[in-house]
């Protein structure tokens, strides 16, 4: 069970880094307007729409995988330890009122 959690954490971190990089590579919506008036935005390897569609799909799938690994880690960690987050804390008495 511990090896599975470690493997899932490693996959989760890789997906996080990939998601961050894919989001940062994307251009804003206003960049398409520059390509319409002769800007260099339309001179890409996949064309102006091909890159946008590819990056959108990569973002969507990496976000889905991020959610799946997050939920899986939550379920595995809750099954591993049956205690609450606050079970090890001490309770403090409130001060007497004057």
Structural features:
mainly alpha
Outline the secondary-structure elements.
Elements: H1 2-25, H2 31-36, H3 47-80
Helix pairs in contact: 1-3
Structural commentary:
Helices cover 65% and strands 0% of the residues. Helix 1 packs antiparallel against helix 3. The protein has 98 residues and is mostly helical. It has helices at residues 2-25, 31-36, 47-80.
Brief summary of the model shown:
The chain has helices at residues 2-25, 31-36, 47-80. The chain is mainly α and 98 residues long.
Report mean pLDDT, rounded to a whole number. 78
Topology pattern, helix = H, strand = E: HHH
Q: Terminal Cα separation, in Å?
A: 54 Å
Protein structure class: mainly alpha
Overall number of strands: 0
Low-confidence stretches: none
State the major sheet.
none
State Rg: 23 Å
Residue share in helix = 55-70%
Q: What is the 3D form? A: elongated
Beta-strand residue fraction: under 5%
**Given the structure, what is the number of helices?**
3
Oligomer: single chain
């Amino acid at each position: 069970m511990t090896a599975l959690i470690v493997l899932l954490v490693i996959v989760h971190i890789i997906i996080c880094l990939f998601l961050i990089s894919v989001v940062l590579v994307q251009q804003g919506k206003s960049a398409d307007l520059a390509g319409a008036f002769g800007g260099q935005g339309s001179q890409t390897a996949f064309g102006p729409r091909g890159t946008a569609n590819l990056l959108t799909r990569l973002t969507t799938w990496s976000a889905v995988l991020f959610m799946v690994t997050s939920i899986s880690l939550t379920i595995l960690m809750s099954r591993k330890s049956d205690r609450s987050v606050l079970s090890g804390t001490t309770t403090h008495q409130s001060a007497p009122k004057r």
